[in-house]
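Researcher: Quick sanity check before group meeting.
Model: Go ahead. Protein one:
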Amino acid sequence: MLQIHSFTFNPFQENTYLLINPGKQCWIVDPGMYNSDETEVITGFIRDNDLKPQAIINTHAHIDHILGVQALKERYLIPFMMHEKETPVLNGAAASAMMFGLPLSVVPQPDGFIRHDQPLLLGQEQLDVFLTPGHSPGSISFYYPADQWVIGGDVLFSGSIGRTDLPGGDYDTLINSIRTSLLPLPDDTQVFSGHGPATTIGREKQYNPFLS
């Protein structure tokens, strides 16, 4: 089974995740560390638990989700992967960093692209990949059926949904992504979001005002 550990970084309180298989291989999801102290938090955890980073996999490429990518690429010599449709968002990262006053000396470049119709394998553990645009054009969600949880980035939050007023965002597209890709999952599926607390599919079906 995959273990999931979460960290919260940067002024946007972005959630970064480590996914760890029984052989201590790990994926890093949406690394948002924006200074050396925050970087030490996650690299210290990796060191203290003898983990072996294999790749950085991103749900999307908004600035708060990529601030720590380059540091981890250089430290562990691992690839950075995202969906190809997210390329325009990544290309705008430098301007976004300047607008928000965030440090981004190097815009990380993807070493490959994640396909939404092809599962990801970490050893024997499999993640299914859903294309869930609307918050951004290439947003993807990672579903782990073996333990029924999904990392959805900024698509679905506890009691809310991702914003759609940024370039490439679209409200109707986002709602359709949630309804067609996430809500069909079992009600007890845990949803790990890009910000805020975890929730469940069943709770959001019942209480999320955007989905009623």
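Researcher: Fine. The other one?
Model: Protein two, sequence then structure:
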Amino acid sequence: MVISLALAIGALLFLVLAWTGVASLREREPRAAGRALLLAVVAPLPFAGAAFLPLPYGEPVAATLLLLTAVAVLALVIPTPRPDLGDDTPKTRIDERDIMFSRRLLEPGTDRFEQYYGARPARRDLDDRFRVLPGLLSKGASAYSPYTFSAADASFWTIEQLRPFVDGEPAAERVKSDARAVTEFIKRWALKLGAVTVGVTELRDYHLYTTVGRGPEWGKPVRREHDFAIALTVEMDKEMIARAPQGPTVMESAQQYVAAGVIAVQMADFIRRLGYTARAHIDGNYRVVCPLVARDAGLGEIGRMGLLMTPELGPRVRLGVVTTELPLVPDARRRDTTMIDFCAHCRKCADACPSEAISRDRRTEIDGVPRWQIDQEACFTYWCTVGTDCARCVTVCPYSHPDTLLHDLVRRGVRNSVVFRRAATWGDDLLYGKRPPPAELPAWMDLEPKSEEVPGA
């Protein structure tokens, strides 16, 4: 009986690992597939071996293996209390002029340049380091490709064309609507338009920047003019992001900024047609800190890398936000401290970060709130070196795996047990590597001329 049960457990182990290998092949993860299939062969051997041991050794060995298996399974599946990580409500607001996307737009010799660095002289030396580098999507950057960079530039140009439409006057006649019904309508419509998730939150002061940092309204105070915010996510394609930090990454990043922006602009225009004020917040034209809005709308948590981590796709998303006076029903924040606890022990993004901009330490109190703080100057300086928005951290994050049955089961285990969380970090390193290398360029993107194809060569 004991021998038969051990053989059954060995067979089940083989099936689970073989299924993992096949699933990884379908995801185009050859290393994970190879290791899972190798484990499918090796891991069941002790169970099978117990059946061939001479009496009286076989049954005690089989019983020991069954006991160890039972202990391991129970440790993984028994729920453990979720960690209490304290209040993480921001106590201060962010000045948009201080973020790197704003600082890179400052031009030496202009009034804005002198005004900003006159007030913050310590940042001038830091910023001079990236100003001497090629820059984002620039010739001379280490990842330069005229094709991928031009494709990304075309997407960013498209976003610029949307900016005049983020705001506008509402219709003179206001349509009376039921808050619950119109909230459901907006959510269903956003999903139909291509959003992966969508949520609503009451707009709070800490969601807003203190001061505009880009565009013609630079230096203007930001005031709360709306009561509600709608946040949505769109997915960045895993295969494109897997090439990080090469050109396909910034192509995909830019394209999904467009996708999120189009949905947000449409949604804001829809609300204005109902007679209510609404503003879309899209790339390069924000008045809100999108990850904070999305977090409070129930779409995820903010992880070690400073990005929104969604339960379904991790940080492999782009965000769009619409703020409005239209009465809506807000969602409760779905606080997931297990995700923060996983980040605290994983450190994979920090290990893979080429600029060492991501902290490897536990969260510390910054401005009265426990959180991680990335070195934004180091991160952006690397961007200006490689010419893309890097995304190595997004690529290697275990939460970025596709939303499939295999990975959904792992995510469920992560939420359930601290033991499972520790095992999952080890297992991800085992299968995918601690610092997974960038994937090769797909053939259709390999347009660089070969030496024998160069005219006159």
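Researcher: One line on it for the slide.
Model: The chain has 18 helices and eight strands.
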